[in-house]
Each structure stands twice: as C-alpha cells, then as structure tokens.
Design a protein that fits this description.
Distance between the termini: 87 Å
CATH superfamily of the largest domain: Peptidyl-tRNA hydrolase
CATH architecture of the largest domain: 3-Layer(aba) Sandwich
Strand order of the largest sheet: 2-3-4-1-5-7-6
Number of domains: 2
Order of helices and strands: HHEHEEEHEEHEHHH
Radius of gyration: 24 Å
Helix content: 40-55%
CATH class of the largest domain: Alpha Beta
Length: about 220
Amino acid sequence: MQEAHGWRKCNGAEGPRLLGELRYGAMFRRKPAQPAPADRWLVIGLGNPGREYERSRHNVGFLVIDELARRHGARVTDRAAKSLTGRIRRGEHELVLAKPQTWMNLSGQAAKALKAKYDVPLGRLLVVHDELDLPFGRLRIRSGGSSAGNHGLDSLIGSFGTKTFPRIRVGVGRPVGDAVDYVLSPFTDDERAQLPDLVRRVADAVEYTVEHGLDRAMTEFNRG
C-alpha cells in the first residue's frame, strides 16, 4: 500500500510540485570544489594599506604588484582573503596578484587565506618585499630563509609554519638610525628617480620566475 501511495504521490496531482522542488534544490546544491589549475601562481606584494604609506619603502611590494597589473591592462581592486586582488595571464600561466590589507605585521593572516582560497602550493607562491640588508636598487630571489627582521615575513613564516617559500627581496638600504621610521618614510628624491626602473626590473623577475622556474630566475637576476 505504501508503494502505491508513493506512486500516486509522484504521478498524481502532487507529482509536478515534487519534481519542481527536486529541480529547484539541485540548482543550489553545492558543487565539489575544482582543483586549482597547475599553471596558477600567487604573487603577494607586502605593504601597508592607506594613502600615507603608498610611496614608502615598506610598500615596494605593492608597487611591483601595481606594475604587473598595469603592463597587462588589469586592476587589483577585487576584495578577497583580506586582500586586494587581480588576475593576469603570462603566456600559459595565470597569476593571482595580491596586496594584503592587513597591516604589514599581520601579512601572514592574509597570505594564509589567499593560499587556501586559490589552492596554490608554496612552490608557486611568490612574495615580494623590501629588504634592509640589500643596498637600494639591488634584488635577490630566494627559495627560503629567515625574515632578516622583516616583520611581514615573520608573520608569513608563522602562518605557513615554514621558512621555505619563494621570495624576491628588494633592496632599500639600511639606515644609520631607526629602521622602523626609515621603512615607513618616503624614498629620497634620488631614490624616487631610480624607483620606476627598479620596480620594472622586479616585475620582470616575477614574470621570469613564473615562466622559467626559480632556479633559472636566481641565476639570471642574482648577479652583482
């Protein structure tokens, strides 16, 4: 009797309504997450949010992200994972560009959220940051290492649980006085004149790393 009742329910007057509900529910059923494409890279430029820090030494990572977006006709304006983000393509590779909107010392919170959202392994995550231990204008690509006192990197190392992730260190020079005031201050007039070329070279290094791999990029850019 129950089987007959069920048949009448689905094929009688109630049938169309029940079938409609099933189709409606299927529309909103959660789809399984798709794996990230193997050509996706996550490029994170470190810096501080706010107009007062836009041209400070600590924000050189943001400047490089903006340059990458500019040369590909993109914008870094989407909000995701505590960051401003955008996407570009370089040949066969997709690059997710990100500027964390936490303060520098909390950059790891955004970086960890970005890594999870875009499902990118640490080997295809590239961090761009200012470096006191390099003279202004020099850059070094590394596969890991200590933070060298950069609190943004300290935060990333703590969040990732490892010091091993690719990074581009952009030299801003070490001051005689207080380092905190120095990195939060604008570049000098002489440095500003050289800054566009420096930012372009770092953006070139990012693209080269994505296309040719970390080892070849270190050989190509870690000269001098």
